[in-house]
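User: Fold this; tokens only.

Assistant: Input:
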Amino acid sequence: MSGERWFSERIGGDARVDLRAERVLHESGIGHQHMVLFENPLFGRVLMLDSVIQTTTADEFVYHEMIVHVPVLAHGSARRVLIIGGGDGGSAEEVLKHQSVERVVQVEIDPSVIEFARTYLSDIHHGAFDDPRLELKIADGARFVAETDERFDVVIVDSTDPSGPSRVLYERPFFEAARRAMTDGGVLVNQCAVPFQDATALRATANGLDGVFADRTAYLASVPAYYAGPMAFGWGSDDPALREVPVETLASRFAAAGFATRYYTPEVHKAAFALPPYIGEIIAG
């Protein structure tokens, strides 16, 4: 087809994935960054930044359900939730499905990310930015956790991979500050990319959490757009019992929450913490 465009994501230095753009909705270059949003028949709307897939509307539910419902339902009585990053609104949308959550604070460093999501990614946030329980703060996430007087039951770090401004969100000072901003028995989770192709985020998280939380590990989910293995989410809590909640208890909490999911189930929740040896080796250092 004349004029057909394909966009490539490189996986390390030895592999790449090509996606066909049925229609380009937005393309811009900001400094050294190239951002493109296009429609693909398989993945829906695909957002890429510097040739790296950030999110797709077809499979975002896997990522957002697992980064949110695992910590919230493991905690069991979360009232206040902090989201660092998450500019597409997907994490906020999933948190706000829990009517027991009274307050959500989302800290996003770049206001243009929010405006972009409002314009192009309504299939991800579904109007979450307008929920009265959500307070959106345009600020640096690391500085916010270091300075806030609030205490949160769940902290969700929904950031880009640890390069550039996001690097500090994978370092020990950030995790120490986040721990001080949490209630006793709280839990922190973050995205750790796909360890098979790049273990940097998971290794940095494991090192950063070590000694800060009594219990630190990871759990997994298969996100189709993130190639070369399952995606990892870091986990830190001072209550080791939170990742040992029986599936029957999770099922009771999930039923009481009263909403449907497309990936998360209590059984998937439990299984996500069963780690293959290569993941365990990364966490152990």
